[in-house]
Amino acid sequence: MSGPNSSMSSIRTPLARVRGLGSARSGTSDFWRQRVTAVAMIVLIIPVIVVVMMLLGRNHAAATQILGSPFVVIVMTLFTIASVWHMKIGMQVIIEDYVHDEKLKLALIIGNNFFSVAVALAAIYAILKLSFGV
Amino acid sequence: MAQHIERPLSPHLSTYRLTLTMAMSVVHRGTGMVLYAGTLLLVWWLLATASGPAAYATFQGFIGSWFGRLVLFGYTFALVHHLLGGVRHLIWDLGYGFGPTEREWLTRAALIGSVSLTIVLWIIAFAAGGLR
Ligand code: HEM
Prior knowledge:
The complex is a heterodimer.
Chain A: H1 14-18, H2 29-55, H3 60-67, H4 70-98, H5 102-131
Helix pairs in contact in A: 2-4, 4-5
Chain B: H1 20-51, H2 53-64, H3 66-93, H4 100-127
Bound molecules: protoporphyrin IX containing FE.
């Protein structure tokens, strides 16, 4: 097992290099982030539901005003970041569990990353546009 | 280093009797995937509002249709179910609730809670006048 930092060029032992990192070289950080984003959403879901309830049946002018107010913008942006991050990790876990063909797995993981980034960018762009006035 | 190491294998899934807890874990994964797809609805809603009255009217037209309502109801249930199921998972992650009765009790609570909460949310939405 010789990675980019092969033991030849390092005085650290192989054990020291991998300790706590696991095979993905990033240890349990994805597991941890999925939990942190889950906790964030438990809190954020309450104002998000209130915002959605306020918007039901409103016309466009009222909707832009509500969605563009500072508190709503911040809540919606935070919820977008938390949920997209969380779902990206979650979907990667699902892919790794069921897809065992290496090439297909790689393609799906890349696709998952593209989809998640695109969704986050589109949502945040729309929220910010509303906040600065259409 | 690359030599094969004999590790103990866990018994195969099919040797266990299917329990409610197991079924709910599968459903949690399912709702996670539904919510993944559902983010498109969220993005559509935000982009339509940011685009102007015409795009907003198109979105409202979809959500107001029986199919749109059905999708939104499904999304609400998936979200609430995944939320309560997620809380249950977090309790387990902290090391609590693993006893045979606690485990089933937690699962039942999450199931009953998610059905009730979804209905309550839709009653509030109707009462608020938004869905008429
Ligand atoms: C509302 C609050 C939420 C909470 C508390 C929550 C909690 C969790 C937890 C604890 C897990 C890990 C389950 C396990 O260990 O097997 C998980 C998985 C997952 N979540 Fe969420 N989640 C929430 C919202 C969302 C949303 C909004 C999405 C999608 C946009 C989502 C998508 C997923 C996916 C795809 C997985 C992977 C499922 C699996 O590995 O079986 N979650 N969630």
